[in-house]
Write a structure and sequence with these properties.
By secondary structure, the protein is of the alpha/beta class. The chain folds into 2 domains: 200 residues, NAD(P)-binding Rossmann-like Domain (Rossmann fold, 3-Layer(aba) Sandwich); 90 residues, UDP-galactose 4-epimerase, domain 1 (Alpha-Beta Complex), CATH 3.90.25. It contains 10 helices and 14 strands. The chain has a 7-stranded parallel sheet, with helices on both faces. Strand 5, helix 5 and strand 6 form a beta-alpha-beta unit. Helix 1 crosses helix 7 and helix 6 packs across helix 10. The protein is globular. The termini are far apart. The model has no long low-confidence stretch (mean pLDDT 95). Its EC number is 5.1.3.2.
Length: 324
């Protein structure tokens, strides 16, 4: 019996796969390596290089490795780029999920943990986002994640698929120096790349109605997120009833200004960020409650901001020669 992790060679997926292995769960990684890295795959994981659009290959892998459940993280994850490439986004995230669900049905696999996103909320007008906050996605990426949730729920009603979806915001840090965030769009990699390149990081807007004038966001450590996936999988496999969705939120958030100060302290590189104009559509604050996940998935913020910066920086420095 094993669990299959789609997108398990990516930054988040590789951490999730490692968390499963560390808990003694046989793990299969499926990744087409379009953005993932083979070096991120744990040596004890069985690796299948394939796209989730290849339903026949997925069925074959599930049967070959006696898969009992799937953690679905594979997809096109760049919200901004998705506006320019909507068809690719829907192909990877919607058609891909349909393909995966069909393969699971064909192979008799009845448990799924879905990696959803806070992008389903768009720009909420509440101080604290809950699972019931209205969904108004503002990009094809956010729309595709919400459709993914609908597809999985429909499959649950039709064929008894036991499932839950985890929505999260900004994932940072590293659980091992072997894996770092390689996204060209996320804040931590952007700041680290600037510092390593001798450039000054910048903040987009410092005149928001927040304590220090910079945007406030939810930042969670990738290792905490990975642990929540393992708990969700175990509970589904045990036959426990879970909520259809959970927010993995901090409950209080951190400002971009505070992030910059923490990075200066954690890296030992003193800098004063440049202030650039606001970006269109950036809300002042997006923070989520994690109360439901704390109740059911043992969710909590085990790593503080200092840990997030230190672990991310150590992993980025370890990869620096190959990443430059």
């Amino acid at each position: 019996m094993s669990w299959l992790v789609t997108g398990g060679a990516g930054y988040i997926g590789a951490h999730v796969a490692r968390a499963f292995i560390e808990q003694g769960i046989d793990t299969v990684v499926v990744d087409d390596l379009s953005t993932g890295r083979k070096a991120f795959v744990h040596p004890e994981a069985r690796f299948v290089q394939a796209t989730i659009l290849d339903g026949e290959r997925l069925v074959e892998a599930m049967r070959q490795f006696d898969v009992t459940g799937v953690v679905h993280l594979a997809g096109f994850k760049y919200a901004g780029v998705s506006v320019e490439r909507p068809l690719l986004t829907y192909q990877q995230n919607v058609t891909g999920t349909v393909s995966l669900l069909g393969a699971m049905e064909g192979a008799g696999v009845h448990h799924m943990v879905f990696s959803s996103s806070a992008a389903v909320y768009g720009t909420p007008d509440v101080d604290l986002v809950t699972e019931d906050t209205p969904k108004h996605p503002e990009s094809p990426y956010g729309e595709s994640k919400l459709i993914g949730e609908w597809l999985i729920a429909d499959q649950g009603r039709a064929h008894g698929l036991a499932h839950t979806s985890l929505r999260y915001f900004n994932v940072v840090g590293s659980g091992t120096p072997d894996i770092h965030d390689v996204s060209p769009h996320n804040l931590f990699p952007l700041v680290f790349d600037a510092l390593l390149g001798g450039r000054t990081p910048r903040i987009n807007g410092d005149d928001y109605p927040t304590p220090d004038g910079t945007c406030v966001r939810d930042y969670i450590h990738v290792a905490d997120l990975a642990d929540a996936h393992v708990v969700a999988a175990r509970r589904l496999e045990a036959g426990d009833r879970l909520e259809p969705v959970y927010n993995l939120g901090s409950g209080d958030g951190v400002s971009v200004g505070e992030i910059m100060s923490a990075i200066a302290d954690g890296t030992g590189i003193a800098f004063t960020p440049e202030i650039a104009p606001r970006r269109a559509g950036d809300p002042a604050r997006i923070v989520a409650s994690g109360e439901l996940a704390a109740r059911d998935l043992d969710w909590r913020m085990r790593h503080g901001l200092g840990d997030m910066v230190a672990s991310a920086w150590a992993a980025r420095k370890a990869a620096a020669p190959a990443a430059e």
